Description:
The structure is a single chain. The chain is of the alpha+beta class. Among the domains are: 54-231, Rossmann fold (3-Layer(aba) Sandwich), CATH 3.40.50; 249-327 and 364-387, CATH 2.40.50.690; 488-667 and 680-734 and 819-879, no CATH class; 894-983, CATH 2.40.50.140. It has a five-stranded antiparallel sheet. The protein has a five-stranded mixed barrel with strand order 13-14-15-17-16. A five-stranded mixed sheet has the order 18-25-24-21-20. Helix 13 (468-478) packs antiparallel against helix 25 (858-890), helix 18 (653-675) crosses helix 19 (706-729) and helix 19 packs across helix 23 (833-845). The N and C termini lie far apart (75 Å).
Amino acid sequence: MTSLKRTLEADSFASNLSSKVYVRSTRSGKVQKIVREVYLRQDIPCSSKLCRQCPQNAPRDAAGNAVPFVLSDKPAGTKAFPQGHYILPDTNALLNAMDLFEQSSAFYDVIILQTVLEELRNRSLPLYNRLVGLTKSEDKRFYVFFNEFRLETYIHREPNETVNDRNDRAVRRAVKWYGQHLAQSSKSKNLPAIVMLSDDRDCIAKAKADGLHAMTLSEYVGGLEDSERLLDMVPEAREGGEFDKRTSFLYPEYYTLSRMMTGVKAGLLHQGIFNVSPYNYLEGSIKVPAFVKPLVLLGRENMNRAINGDVVVVEVLPKDQWKEPSTKIIEEEAITQNENADNEEGSDLVSEKERKALQEEVKKTHSKSTEGRPQPTAKVVGVIKRNWRQYVGHIDPSSTSQSSTQGRRQENVFLIPMDKCIPKIRIRTRQSGELLGKRVLVTIDAWERDSRHPVGHFVRSLGELETKAAETEALLLEYDVQYRPFPRTVLDCLPKEGHDWKVPASMDDPGWRGREDLRSLLICSIDPVGCQDIDDALHARPLPNGNFEVGVHIADVSNFVKPATAMDTEASIRGTTVYLVDKRIDMLPMLLGTDLCSLKPYVERYAFSVIWELTPEADVVNARFTKSVIKSREAFSYEQAQLRIDDASQQDDLTQGMRTLMMLSKKLKQKRLDAGALSLSSPEVRVQMESETSDPIDVKTKQMLDTNSLVEEFMLFANVSVARKIYEAFPQTAILRRHAAPPKTNFDELTNQLKVKKGLELHVDSSKALADSLDACVDPSDTFFNTLVRIMATRCMMSAEYFCSGTQSYPEFRHYGLASEIYTHFTSPIRRYADLQAHRQLAAAIGYEPMHPAVRSRGRLEAICKNINVRHRNAQLAGRASIAYYVGQALRGKEAEEEAFVMKIFSNGFVVLVPRFGIEGLIRLRDLATPEPESTFDPENYVLTTSGSRAVTIELFQKVRVRVQDDMDEKTGKRGVKMELVKP
């Protein structure tokens, strides 16, 4: 449907003309009244196949064909509506139960009103996107009806009527019109009922008073065949007024929004992102600009229902209540075990345990503070934005009743999330017996003042704990990885020739337009073993003047993925390819990623090339950028390339070119290091899989070769060159990547630890100073110590992020870790959307093709950057979680004694890193002996000493020996890696 909203001449269509009035405040604080005239039409179709009147008004596609109607002529019936029915939900039904609409086989033939769609977009953009996805599904039959532009369904807002009441009235008007319209325009005697779904009791009462079919979600689902299972997916509704009568509250009331905003503006309150300690669930923190160190939040009351990642407003407590961060491990599962989920509201059953645990922390003396003074503490007074999502976990067996396994009685149970930073979630289910021992997906609905835990509802079961399929899907859901199959609209964007596509043989073909023929160059790629999505290839050759020509050739993905297409939209949503141990979740369809775009050897491929003339000292004489056609001579693994370079008998031109690349890469790296680039570290391992079963059988530490560095240096070099070019051409909209300098306070703890334990100084005034002092952090008796320090320093850093150049001043462009003034991502467009955008901008910068409007819009580019920053981070976390899971699986039924290093010490345990497996483990004092041995903790010197039957002394950075084995918790059915201290 086009031209649904237009401004008209005063004398045109006067009878069908209506005005919409909007009031908004401008940046200057003035109130602006906007009047928009809307032409109300009578040709917007109902989209029911039963209708005999609307087909003549059906919208047409680009080819002029009528768009098929969506709503079935034989919609499903229920007990209440045996003749069939169409569903028309209001906004709160979709807000509360989107999972139900997405997954249930009962929700078909659904009419989504324009009013509801717009209201949902304003209330929740993620839910809006999910609903839009449903409207594009050919199977679900969701139809968007533009009721605000249909003459009979448009309504004016009455004087003193709220927007919400007006929208509810618009929904009821649409329900009534649909029923009347089908009665008049259909020849069928058994017309389907139009059923309004809502959880607003007042709206339902008004609908029924008007003779309409209206039901709550629970009433509707209760009449379906699979009602018992589906009712678990309906959020628990609280009757209006019941909550207000309660007098027993566990948490303080939130401040009003106006009070919070006034307080933040005045500096009396502070806004930031709430983070929970991974080692103490009763402690949180929030970083705010007004304080050098994070504000500490101690206890559930001060956290006041905030969940990890929420944007909150806090109030700083008086100085006499300021404390230091916890030195004790406090786990929710241990403290709140055997809670009664059915007797939760208004109860104080577990608070006494929590209070005692917290009091032990608060009472401890801080005279030997390693920080010098306590940190400021605060309390949450309001939540600006919830970070709620779907959560994966398992049902706590201790919260289920004995009778739950014998019948389908509804009961409250607790879900223990996989993420330890998320509190237990209370859900109501009839399936508790069936869900025990399974991975379960739930959604949080609310967290009221009288409930100790957040309340949610069941979404679906993922399968048995520890099965590969269930654990992999759980991991993907936990990190919000988009893993659904590519929709047909995306696959339709692929070249029609499929795998038979080739670079045109004739250079007169339009596909060669503006491309340089580089097929004669001796180009090769160097990648990990088994790499199929080859983004990059390189070449080097000597020039007559003694210099070298060096080229980095990148897959020309932008030739196949055009802006504003379905494939481009899907790639922008996914943001990046996600690499797990056993699979890859592609950003682009496999045909492109591993075939047509991949720079495979021996075949011609489109590329985007960066070509430099470099001196023997790796100084740039000139650089140019060109679209090209290349033919890679070979695809090497890092190991193969290293062997070939090191083999003196290999003297062919391709090998000599690789040696030239190696020589120049070392000089480029030295230039970076001299400028202050950091050489950081993180534990990296590779899980070895059995070839036939794909089961993990061993874990190997990744070996970094000179060829790894060769590729890395030239990719960095190309990214810097491209960043300069696109910023020069588009100073307001260039997609760049920055890495902010970390606050010096981020290194306070590590600096003090190195000084106290090793007598070493860590200088953090600049990246150069930090790099030099990290080089000096060595222990002659322990070669791994320097790596350990670099791993710990990495965790003090800020995260790198994509940004649009017009949103930052030039000094803020700097990439701290790389010591580069400007940087972008260009070299991996098959697997990163940011690189694809950089390709489009570079193509416009060199005049190859004009910039598409979608790539010019700064607002859209800012939104893209925001999304891909999240996707990039989630992909990293998902990859690490996959490795951790498979390391545990590789150890299943085995045990190994390995060297480990103490990274963190608490008063009742310590954290160790096992380099062999690249994993960290928590060893509690209670794991050393039973009963838990007596101990003393010296926080000033980072020493933990136990006495009795297991007397040991544990110090920071100490090398210890641990026994690593798989561990099955019989109570929860959850398998993990268990570490036991062997020595000392």
